[in-house]
Amino acid sequence: ILDIKYPATKKQALESILANERLPLSSLTTITQTLMDTLRNQEGECVDEGLLQFCANKLKLLQLHESVSKINHLDMQSDLVPSDNDLAKLLRLDEREFARLQMLLENYKLQDTRLSVHFAEDKDGTLPVKTFLEHLECEKDTIEVKKLEESEYVALGSFFFWKCLRGESSTEEMCDILVSAGFSPQRLLSLLLSVWLSKEKDILHRTQSVCCLHAALSLLSKMTVAVDELWDSQSVSPWWQQMRTACVQSENNGAALLSAYIGHSVTAQITDSIAEKKFSQITVGADTDPWEALSLDTEYWKLLLKQLEDCLILQTLLHSKVGKKRSQASSVQTEPPGRLSVKKLLEGGKGGIADSVAKWVFKQDLSPPFLRLGWKKEESEEPPETGGIIVAEVEEDQTELETILGKDKKHTFECQVIWGVNQSSSLVFLLTVKE
């Protein structure tokens, strides 16, 4: 490369070498560094500034890859598993609320039958140098991510944060290195959430990940360009809105619900801290009776938490099987229910939810008396006469359904679910009369 006279040809030669998958990182770094030093030692008029900048950008990315790989190979295995009480305090939940959250996630995990395939060559926390260079580009003092497919974006985020989310790497060191290299906190938040939401099965079986995401989110949120200190608590912060948008669009409802609880907790923590500085005369209460400053963002979090919980319950319901008997209609091969998200439910309107529930109820072949339980929620309507009923069967199905939905819990989509059950009740009644 040093013997090539034309700068454009030198650049092509370096690009070809950097794209070689067989050369180790140390060799690529040495070659790039040598070429850049040679260019700098040339006389001023002969130096091609474009080629010099190209070498500097690639060298910066190569050094960043090396730094991230070193952190990922430290292997900080921690055997400390947080207790339920620790997690409840972290998420700002009381004992009863945390127990309910655990129950909903357990039911969700049992009904989630999606297959996950892992290949032997897939290693978390690694990314080929060639791929790394192809995904990123330097612009002055910043590093930008090119437009990537979702799987490629998740792979890049996993290289940075998956070991951190497992508690096997230092989250603080990783964030410091990435920000110093030129990544914006907003980009890092996007990469962090992409990993969290895509690795749902692993995360739901590893409670320590909740603490890790809370720590990472707290670190990123404290950066000066993330949450502005001049941020008004009565306005919506773009930082938290970015995280809420990711949760709303995600079809991995368990991971989305957990991340929303963590986001709400960190938001409340920062809001309280800002309020304490402004109103130092206000004293914070004890841990058993926490004081929480009001902000528009915390209210948006509370609304989103209700929506995500309802979405998770509905997803669990549509993938569940209540009762042991099945009708001829349910035995027919039908297309499995799709994945839901809050965005899909809001865009689908009332009819979409009710139709999905009605189809599910029909496939379960539930008895008419059980279906008429929906009318108990409607004060203005009286349920029709049930006639001969096998009470034990109805009670068994009711117990299973209450376990999935959560007994005595008010949901934001409740009326639409009841409407779907009532639609199914009418349909089953007509079919019974026809038979």
Features:
disordered C terminus, 435 residues, two-stranded antiparallel sheet, mainly alpha
Secondary structure: elements and pairs:
Layout: H1 7-18, H2 25-41, H3 49-72, H4 84-90, H5 95-111, H6 129-135, E1 136-139, E2 142-145, H7 150-165, H8 171-181, H9 185-198, H10 200-204, H11 208-221, H12 238-249, H13 253-278, H14 296-318, H15 328-331, H16 342-364, H17 368-371, H18 391-405, H19 414-434
Antiparallel strand pairs: 1-2
Helix pairs in contact: 2-3, 3-8, 5-14, 7-9, 9-11, 9-12, 11-13, 12-13, 12-14, 13-14, 14-16, 16-19
Walkthrough of the structure:
The longest helix is centred in the middle third of the chain and has 26 residues, at 253-278. This protein is 63% helix and 2% strand. With 435 residues, it is mostly helical. 32% of the residues are buried. It has 19 helices and 2 strands. The protein has a two-stranded antiparallel sheet with strand order 1-2.
Count of discrete alpha- or pi-helical segments spanning 4 or more residues: 19
Quick check: average pLDDT?
Answer: 78
Cα distance spanning the termini? 85 Å
> Shape, please?
elongated
Q: How many strands appear in the DSSP assignment?
A: 2
Arrangement of strands in the largest sheet = 1-2
Radius of gyration: 28 Å
Proportion of helical residues: 55-70%
- Major sheet: size, sense and barrel closure? 2 strands, antiparallel
Give the DSSP E fraction (strand runs of 2 or more residues): under 5%
**Uncertain segments of ≥5 residues (pLDDT<50)?**
117-122, 284-291, 326-332, 383-394, 423-435
Quaternary state reads single chain
- Given helix and strand content, the structural type is mainly alpha
Q: What is the chain-wise order of helices and strands?
A: HHHHHHEEHHHHHHHHHHHHH
